[in-house]
UniProtKB/TrEMBL annotation:
Sorted UniProt keywords: TPR repeat
The TPR repeat ranges on this chain: 122-155
InterPro entries attached to this UniProt entry: TPR-like_helical_dom_sf (IPR011990), TPR_rpt (IPR019734), UCP029658_TPR (IPR016931)
Gene3D superfamilies referenced in this protein's UniProt entry, alphabetically: Tetratricopeptide repeat domain
Keyword rRNA-binding recorded: no
Keyword Transmembrane: no
Matches recorded under PROSITE patterns: PROKAR_LIPOPROTEIN (PS51257), TPR (PS50005)
Protein name (database record): Pilus assembly protein
Transmembrane segments: none
Top-rank taxon, per record: Bacteria
Amino acid sequence: MERAGFSTAMAALAACTLLLGACAFKESGYGIGAQAERAALMQAAADKSAPPDTPGMYLGLIGRMQAQGLYYASLAHIDAYEKQYGASPDTILLRADALRATDQPAASAVAYRQLLDTPLASRGHRGLGLLAGASGDFERASQELAQAVALAPTDAPTLSDLAYARMRGGDVTGARVPLMKAAELDQHNSKILSNLALFLLATGQTREALGLMDQQKLPSAVRTEIRSDAAKIAAAARVRQRNLTRPGSAQAASAAGTAGSANASSAPAAGGSAAAANDAVPVAVAAGLEPAAAPARQHSQ
């Protein structure tokens, strides 16, 4: 592992970025004032234009409402749409997202499960993963998000969500590849970049993490949130490591068998030197980091 190479790649990736926001599993745009302002703008726009007269136009309007954070209004319009045109995977997804955003997880989960046998199955698994993560079940979140990634392997937000879930579950090593994929696929996504800063902290690369946060001029509240998540990840990693090394566990038995096979085929050159070397392994190596290829210089849409 060349730590300098990895850090250089991280710096190059950070240089391509413009914005950095809150961590995964969290919505943006909180606040009564902001919500009221958006509602007024949407109402003004509605007053100046005719009601949508095609299903596509109506779905577009509902999608724009959700993009502005008007999830309750979108639920009302989803009801109206389905009354006129009937339900479809698109409306089920819009409903599931709105229910999740309005703190109705049980109803949201029902809607997401309805998508699992449709062309939007990946979105269904992603939604179930986000619900699990919001409830603190990061193992289940990782499972659902991994299924979503398998169905949509180039979806950068889902890759980033998977990385975040794995980190929060203590599997920092398993977070690296999906996070790097996400960061190179979408170099301007604020949540992905937030998870990148979090990953750098979680792997002991504090200087690089602080440099990224400084470059993006993050407010103190966001930095505090990232540091808080990093502390939670460290605690989860310790628990996971204890479980992996517990005598009699399946993971420990598997690791012991692998180590025994390796020792049988290749003995250390000097007694005790291997153990001493392992004790001196840097944090980045222990986390499974390897030199990352330089990111693409141009962001592809």
